Amino acid sequence: MATIALLGNPNTGKTTLFNELTDKYAYVGNWTGVTVEKKMGQLTDSETMVVDLPGIYSLNPLTKDEAVATDYLLTGHPDLILNVTNAGQLKRNLLLTIELLESGIPVVLALNMLDDLQQSPFLFDLPTLAEWLHCQVKGTNARSKQGIAALHANLLQSLDHSAVSPALTLPYPEPVAHAIDATTQALQATHPELPRDFTRWLIIQYMAQNQTIRDYAQRQQLTALTHQTAAFDQQNFEDHIFQTRLTFIEQTLQAARRPNPAMQPNQLTQRIDRWVTHPLLGIPIFIGIFWLMFKLSFDWIGTPASNLLNAWLSGPVTATANHLLSSWGTLPFLQSLLVNGILDGVGGVLTFVPQIFVLFACISALEDSGYMARAALVTDRLMQMIGLNGKSFIPLIIGFGCNVTGVMATRTIEQPKERLVTILISPFMSCSARLPIYSLFVAAFFSRHQAVIVLSLYFLGIVVALVMAKIYQLAFRLKRSSTFMIELPKYHVPRLDIILQGTWDKGKGFVKKAGTVIFAGTVLIWLLSNLSWHGPVTDIDQSLAATLGKLLLPLFIPLGVRSWEVVSALLTGVMAKEIITASMIVLFHLTGRTALVATFSGLFTPLSAYCLLVFILLYIPCFSTLATIKAETGSTKWMVYSAGSSFVIAYGLAVLIYQVGSLFL
Amino acid sequence: MQLFSQDIMVHQLTTHSFQQLDPLTVRRLERLGIRPGSQLTVIRQYPFHGPVILQVDQQQIALRYPVFQALIGGA
Ligand SMILES: Nc1nc2c(ncn2[C@@H]2O[C@H](COP(=O)(O)OP(=O)(O)OP(=O)(O)O)[C@@H](O)[C@H]2O)c(=O)[nH]1
User: Where is the FeoB-type G domain (chain A) (predicted)?
Assistant: First the structure.
């Protein structure tokens, strides 16, 4: 089965094209680093696989996610490369194109974002480009689906004739060219199995100090290369290679450039940035945008919709289920499991879908608009103080959706230590799974200031993350790095279809979890609350859940918790934070949220309720996050550390707030 | 509205040699299309040595002040 690899600079529209060309949807965002792991899809109407790889500027990787792409070229053996470029920035994009063309793997070049090019004073003649670069060139506008059909046809056609196109050979200066030829001969003698083009490409990459290739050569014992490292480097081959490529690109573009008769300058980006990146207004606008996001999710749209759903689930749906089950003569034990356990528990969590989806829709709109890069810019100052840079802010914001994706998004951070710090502080970002429990308590105790209280928890999460980052900066002796660099993409008016897709993409995990982990957690807690060591019990006070909860209750009294049910619910929350809500519903034997809210007012004061929320915000990350931390840091030690440290911080802070608060309230 | 009109001070610059920068930063700049001799347009400069927004070949890039200083040859 043939494979096409999608490669190109970050934010050139690879993922958008991928989605247009394949039957499967992948995640799209208007900022660098959306694709952190390769994604596979099937080319529409064909057997061909398409692989979407993270955006890279060159095959010589600086970050972990860039290394994924180079590794793939070495090991994945794609039959065809679809090189996606931003037509408005060809000069820079072609540097990568040349590296790909040299590999000997057939390349189809897509000049994407043609709409942006239309706004500039020049256009490019595609046949001329094709002639200079020895590859197929197609123009596209992935966002409005222009040129996709032609590209699709061309890809299929190119796969058929893939054998014919020769690799591009640039006129490197004498010493380099000579060394390439000599080394090719030497390598072919020792490794005749390597194709000739691939060998040349390896050598050029090796000379250009590509670390991934150098490691590869070491592993494969390509001594003809490894023995010459010093010689290559002393003669500054990297520089020569770079200069030759640049000259070639300039000549190519010169030949292909045509004046644009219908230039339509677009001032949108400039106009918006006048305000959004303003030195004084940038931060207030940033805060304002987030405030708006929370207002929409909790006050204006999300909560009212949630309430409607809740009324429907705990009213008619539960009544009908009870009625049906009784009329079928279901065993009481089973009926209780189905209605009081699963329907109430899982349903109770599902009623938060509107709030979560509104929040995700807002994040998707921000991503698609191009604002995220500006957020990184305006927060860079703040991040600099704690030894990180604005780019760390993006994974943190993604963490608001889900800590797992937040941790994964740290791959774009270049410095390993900065990356580790960002991974460690990511779980303090309040993910969507914690929302249901906030909403419950906020509805019970702070009904008049719901959005503000929830927002305060989000900010507390950020503050704790920042403080911890500062501590890590000192502990790890992070140097003050000056390497923050970020591209500011052009703004787009967010498109409804992209927002909807993005929302669904982020939110479907939550819905899916309701059917799997939360379902399992609910059943588990229901069993624990209906069984003792000696079999089924009718009095929940005798159950396993009660035994366990009561055992640990003393530990939680300093933060104002007075019922074992809450402790048991917290324990289950380590599986997935949503389960806390489901567990409480099951443990308190309640039908949905309304009843729970009433029960709470007897058990908590507003202060102890807030402290519990603080504890839930910060305590041990869920299993999936812990597993991701382990995978991303490659160490169990950091995973255990993350679990332990966050528990200590959560406990300490919650106790502190409760004890200090009790003095005043 | 003084505040809003004076802060966008567009001016053109040419980068000098990158000797003061570490190799990693140089590579990163190269990838963004900034090399010795590149034409830069300064779009916005934040006060108190904050980030600088530049335009290179139709693309806007933000970087920190020390790197910007090194680019234009000042120390
Ligand atoms: N104007 C315009 N925008 C486009 C076009 N194609 C994609 N975009 C937008 O560009 C942004 C980036 O698209 P992605 O598909 O995420 O880019 P990517 O190359 O996969 O990004 P990374 O995975 O970060 O490397 C999104 O906001 C797209 O909607 C196009 O042809 N024209």
Answer: 1-161
Q: Quick check: A596 and A584 in contact, CB under 8 A?
A: yes
Residue A140: partners with Cβ closer than 8 Å, 6 or more residues away: A13, A17, A110, A111, A112, A114, A146, A147, A148, A151
* B1: pLDDT strictly greater than 60: no
Ordered DSSP codes for A82-106: EEEEEGGGHHHHHHHHHHHHTT-S-
Structure tokens at A195: 């194709």
Q: Rounded to 5 degrees, what are φ and ψ at B39?
A: -90, 125
For residue A261 the two structure tokens come to: 């008769």
A55 is in an annotated binding site: yes
A33 CA distance to ligand 1 middle (Å): 11
Total residues found in chain A within this entry: 665
Tokens of A602: 């007897």
Q: What are the tens digits of pLDDT across the range B15-56?
A: 877 777 888 788 888 888 888 888 889 988 888 888 899 988
Contact yes or no for A484 and B51 at CB 8 A: yes
A-B CB pairs within 8 A amount to 85
CB-CB contact of A58 with A12 (8 Å): no
DSSP H helices in A295-352: 302-312, 318-327, 332-336, 344-350
Is 0.80 topped by the overall pTM?
A: no
Q: Is A19 annotated as a binding residue?
A: yes
Between CA A483 and CA B65 the distance in angstroms is: 10
Handedness of CA A310, A316, A319, A323 (dihedral sign): negative
Q: Looking at beta carbons, which residues of chain A come within 8 Å of B3?
A: 280
Which CATH number does the domain A3-164 belong to among 3.40.50.300, 3.50.30.20, 3.40.1190.20, 3.30.70.20?
3.40.50.300
Runs of H (alpha helix) within A483-543: 496-515, 517-530
Q: CB A280 to CB B3 under 8 A?
A: yes
Residue B35, SS3? coil
Helix (H, G, I), strand (E, B) or coil at A85: strand
CB A514 within 8 A of CB A578: yes
Return the closest-CA partner of residue A392 out of A460, A454, A499, A472: A472
Q: What is the β-pairing status of strands A39-42 and A49-52?
A: antiparallel
Which residues on B lie below 8 Å from A486 (Cβ)? Answer: 61-63
The ipTM, to two decimals, is 0.85
The first and second tokens of residue A528, run together, are 């624990």
Identify the structural domains of chain B with CATH numbers, from first to last: 5-71 (2.30.30.90)
The residues of A whose Cβ lies within 8 A of any Cβ of B are 57-58, 60, 62, 88-89, 91-92, 95, 120, 242, 246, 269, 273-274, 277-280, 373, 377, 380-381, 384, 414, 482-488
For ligand 1, the distance from its centroid to the CA atom of residue A493, given in whole angstroms, is 13
The predicted-structure confidence for A62-93, as pLDDT tens digits, reads as follows: 877 788 888 888 888 899 999 999 998 898 89
DSSP single-letter state for residue A383: H
> Residue A22 — φ and ψ, nearest 5°?
-115, 170
Query: B8 to chain A: which residues are within 8 Å by CB?
Result: 274
A197 annotated as belonging to a binding site for a ligand: no
Give the amino acid at A139: G
Paired tokens of A482 = 């000056």
pLDDT of residue B8: 47
* A22 secondary structure, DSSP code: B
Is A482's CB within 8 Å of B66's CB?
A: yes
What phi, psi does B44 have (nearest 5°)? -155, 140
| Domain ranges across chain A | 3-164, 174-259, 282-475+483-662
In angstroms, rounded to a whole number, what is the distance separating the alpha carbons of residues A436 and A443? 11
Set of chain A residues whose Cβ sits within 8 Å of the Cβ of B32: 57, 92, 485, 487
